[in-house]
Amino acid sequence: MDSWVRFNTQSQAKERLFRAAQYGCTLLGHMLQRSGPASELYTTVRQLEAHLSLTRKVVRLGNSVEALEAAKRAVHLSDSVLRLCITISHLNRAMYFACDNVLWAGKVGLAPKLDHNKWSQRSFRYYLFALILNLTRDFYELSRLMGNQSRHVATKSLAPSDDVTSPVVLPACLRLRLHQLVTVLYSNPPLLLDLLKNTCDIFIPLDRLGFYSTGPGFVGACGLTSSLLSILTMVHPWLKLKP
Hints:
single chain; 243 residues; mainly alpha; globular
């Protein structure tokens, strides 16, 4: 089991590198397309992007098992909100990887009659739901930490004025909440990175499913950014949000 965990960790690191390169090609291809006629280079970049996408599918073979194992571990979390969000998120990731494996089989000719568009849409729906749950978990963590900080500050300061008609009350409250938000995120880099990564990632399935079209340039930039953030958490494991 330890050997499998080490192998899977190495595979995830490689997949993140391929993902960063793939979305870098997406962004570069969009820039080349806008800059003018560069058909040969543009075609080369698009072909490289397609090869990287297929390579990622090969590297991710078997990731459904890892996602199911993660879901089994999350079932035992004591916090009910975290247990629900993390468990269902991992289950959706498992389904996403399973659909991805089917798409790989279609691309390499093992399933020649496969409806690629249907399975791609199904894959991105599972991916989108997993990201929504991840963001829900992030905002729950953020809300809980801000609540803790508010109670901590309240014990060290006087109660605020009840004069709600004062024109300075609302701006003061907004400034206080903003200060709490910045303080909490600054003191919790794993939460900040996870929130940024999931926010970037969610635009990818939204665009692919047609819910919120942003274009290949924006999708490429978001995918590249989230990939680099993921690589950062692998290089420095303490930056990974736990559990």
